[in-house]
Amino acid sequence: MNESAPRKLHYAWVVATVTFLTLLVTAGIRSTPGVLIVPIEHEFGWTRATISVAISVNLLLYGLMGPFAAAFFDKFGIRRTMVTALTLLVAGVCATTLVTRPWHMILIWGVVVGGGAGMTAYSLSATVVSRWFYRSQGTVMGILTASAATGQLVFLPLLARLSHHHGWRQAAFAIAGAALAILPLVLIFMRNRPEEKGLLAYGEQATASAAADRQQEHLHLNPFHTAILGLQRGIVSRDFWLLAGSFFICGASTNGLIGTHLIPACVDHGIAEVQAAGLLALMGILDLFGTTFSGWLSDRYNSRYLLFGYYGLRGLSLLGLPYALAGPEWGLTAFAIFYGLDWIATVPPTVRLTAEAFGRERVGVMFGWIFASHQVGAALAATFAGTVRTYLGDYMIAFLLSGVICLLAAGLVLRINKGGSGEPEVGIVNMEA
Q1: Is residue 306 in a domain?
Q2: Looking at the domain assignment, is residue 94 inside a domain?
């Protein structure tokens, strides 16, 4: 196939679309605990702290699978790994409806669903973008990252209504059915690399260096060895610790706290579960725009300053959340708008800074480990917030502490890649190791 022939649609956009849909459904699965906590608490009499342990295991494995998933993409291919992940998710979510003991919840939702979701974490986005796109990488990464918000927007109100009117098990079957529907699309349309379609990456020109890069990408080690080498490379790097530390705080203040506990916190303040899910859906709409715009900005401006603004604004919004919950209804809506625009806008600039620090060929594995720290923060925050609610009766301490550490993260990110210029490159693929 003639690589230079004009095309109406580069196949990279087909791959990006299938990836977006897959991430959208897995985001819907990951948002489900926010809807399930209260009905499971009522049915089984388990404390919120007990339920939060299973959610924490899920969040932890979701993160820890990231660097190994990136290595699996290299060794076994993106399509095969995605099919395996979706199969695990369908089986795990359906099996959740059979739980009768807390350890069942930990094993099924924590281990099986968490492991499956981790194979389609942000390392999938980073790998797809770095392989298929030479230009517009920040913008595409922003769009793929926004799938988490879109999944929340699409599924949360539906799941909340199903749970309220038909029981939480029907909600679980609905989201499992959505994951099953994505499987044929992955099998038919997903491709591992542009070379499989006789193409270069979107926007890339045929050069000797590009050919050398592609040849190098096919020289793979054992996937577990590759992942461990990435960790060894990271632990001796100051930039890795700054990226991982700030992303730890990101996870603690998003997935672990707001994504898991905002709906139960609203219920505590007399707000109906369906209405609370609507607030999260509103945040999803706003984050879809905020994260996509963040990707566009990361193609053009210094990512350290972008992260400084994101973490600082998030910290201020979380400090105001306890008062928004206790105050008039417009206060919580204002929080949803302010926080929603910022929710996961941190991902595109964090991926760019990771590529600047470690190089394009390592971005999947290195960002996988950085994202693992994100999920460690999420898991600890989910357990901590559930324990605070169980023993103190409300979430105020958890919300205030999260706001404070976000302000700390705003200071940390200014020191990432401090030796470089910080100016945006044409694409991640241009960055040297």
Answers
A1: yes
A2: yes
pTM of the model: 0.70
The tens digit of pLDDT for each residue in 139-192 reads: 888 788 777 767 877 787 888 888 888 888 998 999 999 999 999 999 999 998
* Residue 415 falls inside a structural domain: yes
Range of the domain at 332: 11-194+223-419
Number of separate domains in the chain: 1
CATH number at residue 236: 1.20.1250.20
- Which residue pairs from 238-242 have beta carbons closer than 8 angstroms and sit at least 24 positions apart in sequence? 239/353, 239/357, 239/416, 239/417, 240/357, 240/358, 240/366, 240/369, 240/370, 242/412, 242/413, 242/415, 242/416
Within a domain: residue 214?
no
Rounded Cα distance between 220 and 201, Å, is 20
**CB contact at 8 A, 360 and 127:** no
Lookup result for tokens 């095309």: 7
The model's pLDDT over 96-146, given as tens digits with 9 standing for 90+, comes to: 999 889 999 999 988 999 888 888 877 788 788 888 888 777 788 878 877
Q: Are the beta carbons of 73 and 81 closer than 8 angstroms?
A: yes
